[in-house]
Design the sequence.
């Protein structure tokens, strides 16, 4: 039975929760508004967008801007380039970072602390300070304007922080789980694959999303390494598209449509993996 004190406590807490809920909704609307405005503008003709009166809903809009952007002949090659580079970066980053995180968390070896510090220090290096060395290295190897050249640089840039992320997930899973499975007759490899590896799925997904976003949105390294117009990622393609549009009076409807097309693959990727992006699976398994 609820006492009078409990009722008074609930009455005091309820206004605070309502206020926090309203604040969360307001912040969410502020965050979503630029995305909404991009989508809204991509469906409207440039004449409407240049009007002094804003159009809040795309009534009478069409997909003409998207059709015009995709008919240019450069979007799909850039899309393929970005997808290949992003997928290669994600696969190799997860493979390298996963093995390194296991070694740091599960094994004691000489220089382990120094290795962890080196990972953090490498992550702190400014990317701009490495551009000249990276360009000369890729040029000497004949990897300029290639998927392999850009992917190598992306992997080297993303792996340190990915190791740090996965290290926390691996350290959060007690080694006692594997030892208990080994007592039941499983080998160390079987115990790891059946017990530990499934529990690491949220960490792998979160690290994969981070690597994917870094590779997908990266601009400056791609600008230095991919100088050929036939080898461009989507950020470079979008810059070129805006420059071409500006030379003939910027068509903001097409620019917004192009920006939407760049963002769509990221949204699709997140929708696919978002169900696994939670550490609750780990804590639930350990507590159970």
Sequence:
């Amino acid at each position: 039975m609820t006492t009078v004190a409990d009722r008074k406590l609930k009455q005091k807490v309820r206004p605070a929760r309502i206020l926090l809920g309203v604040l969360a909704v307001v912040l969410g609307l502020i965050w979503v508004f630029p995305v909404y405005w991009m989508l809204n503008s991509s469906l409207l003709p440039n004449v409407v967008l240049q009007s002094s009166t804003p159009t809040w809903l795309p009534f009478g809009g069409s997909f003409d801007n998207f059709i015009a952007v995709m008919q240019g002949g450069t979007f799909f090659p850039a899309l393929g380039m970005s997808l290949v580079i992003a997928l290669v970066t994600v696969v190799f980053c997860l493979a390298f970072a996963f093995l390194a995180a296991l070694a740091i968390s599960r094994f004691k070896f000489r220089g382990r602390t120094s290795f962890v510090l080196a990972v953090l220090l490498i992550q702190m290096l400014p990317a701009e300070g490495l551009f000249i060395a990276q360009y000369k290295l890729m040029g000497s190897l004949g990897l300029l304007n290639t998927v392999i050249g850009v992917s190598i640089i992306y992997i080297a840039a993303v792996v340190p922080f990915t190791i740090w992320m996965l290290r926390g997930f691996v350290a959060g899973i007690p080694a006692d789980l594997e030892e208990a499975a080994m007592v039941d007759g499983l080998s160390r490899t079987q115990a790891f694959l059946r017990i530990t590896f499934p529990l690491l799925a949220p960490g792998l997904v979160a690290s994969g999303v981070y690597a994917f976003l870094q590779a997908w949105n990266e601009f400056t390294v791609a600008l230095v390494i991919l100088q050929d117009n036939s080898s461009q990622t989507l950020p470079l393609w979008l810059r070129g598209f805006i420059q071409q549009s500006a030379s003939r009076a910027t068509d903001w409807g097409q620019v917004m449509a192009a920006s939407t097309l760049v963002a769509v693959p990221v949204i699709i990727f997140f929708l696919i993996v978002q169900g696994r992006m939670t550490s609750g699976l780990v804590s639930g398994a350990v507590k159970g």
